Amino acid sequence: MIVLNTGSGREDAQAREATIRDILQNAGRAHELLRITSGTSVQAAATRAVHLARERGGAVVAAGGDGTLNAVARAVLPTGLPFGVLPQGTFNYFGRAHGIPADTARATDALLRASPRPVQVGLVNGHAFLVNASVGLYPQLLEDREAWKQRYGRSRLVALWSACVTLLHAHRPLRLFLGEPGLEQAVRTPTLFVGNNPLQLQRIGIPGGDQAAQGRLVAITLQPLGTLALLGLMLQGALGRLGEAREVHSASFTRLRVRPAAPRQRARIKIATDGEIHRMRAPLEFSISPQPLWLLAPSDQDAVAPE
Question: Which among 129, 142, 172, 294 would be 20 to 30 A from 119, CA to CA?
């Protein structure tokens, strides 16, 4: 059961759909495509796909960017059904970390020989995330990036430029308490970033990032900084050297509690999970799902090294 987001990626949606159908039909694999178009709920399509997969003894496949993968994975996680991925987004950190080809034809062909493998899922207030979750400046960067993509198209260059524009505006640092209940520390930071993807953390140069997805999550905070310093950190991240900056602090954990330091702050906090914006009630409780996601991982012959 393939949940296909026709708005993700840069290829023509009809061509992607035809490619998927042709490969599965030629292989004699029964399948059904559930398309997500403007006005269609991703969650509704994911729920329908799970229902059909359980009814027919099948698997659920998400074809889209990290946000689409997140929505479908949330529906699949509690069922234990096999979960497949056809990456279609701009960065595709989840697919790349697991060796899944970015090309639609190669990824679909790889599904024919894939086998289930347990994959760690992060949770924040019970809400699953595959790649990362964040509060503060990073969710604002994501919101602005989506606005720029709608206007200028999806590309990594557009994403980088929109981030520069966002950082040119003033941002107030967050005042948070972080840690286990009773062992919390006060922190002032522009953003809190929690990673569950070793590839993404490796790409920006965070030491210990390989602990993500190995029974731990990785939290990153920054010291309060001015605009030029933030732009400098973004450049260091693009060069894979963010962890070298003394203004950056990172630590791995299994559980983390986050609450606003000021009681007058709004009880609901804006948070981004895998690029999608939500509002959650404080405190935020980060942990690892006790149940893994059973990813249809490519065989050795089909797996590709991350670019």
Answer: 142
H helices of 205-261, where?
Answer: 227-238
Record the tokens describing residue 53, joined without a space: 């997969």
Considering the segment(s) 2-120+291-297 as one domain, its CATH architecture is: 3-Layer(aba) Sandwich (3.40)
Q: Are 205 and 242 in contact (CB under 8 A)?
A: yes
- pLDDT tens figures, 197-223: 999 999 999 988 888 888 999 999 988
Sheet holding 248-253, edge to edge: 248-253, 217-222, 191-195, 132-136, 268-273, 276-281
Strands (E), the chain: 2-5, 33-36, 60-64, 82-87, 115-119, 122-124, 127-129, 132-136, 174-179, 185-189, 191-195, 217-222, 248-253, 256-260, 268-273, 276-281, 284-288, 293-297
Q: Which of the two residues, 208 and 62, has the higher pLDDT score?
A: 62
128-288 CATH: 2.60.200.40
Q: Cα separation of 234 and 204, whole Å? A: 9
Q: Is the dihedral of CA 100, 105, 106, 108 positive or negative?
A: positive
Residue 118 is predicted with a pLDDT of 97
Which residues are CB-neighbours of 277 under 8 A, at least 6 positions away?
A: 139, 142, 143, 270, 271
Domain regions of the chain by residue span: 2-120+291-297, 128-288
Q: Which residues contact 159 (CB under 8 A, 6 or more apart)?
A: 90, 91, 145, 148, 149
Let me know: does 107 contact 100? Beta carbons within 8 Å. Answer: yes
The predicted model scores a pTM of: 0.87
From CA 146, how far away is CA 160, in angstroms rounded?
12
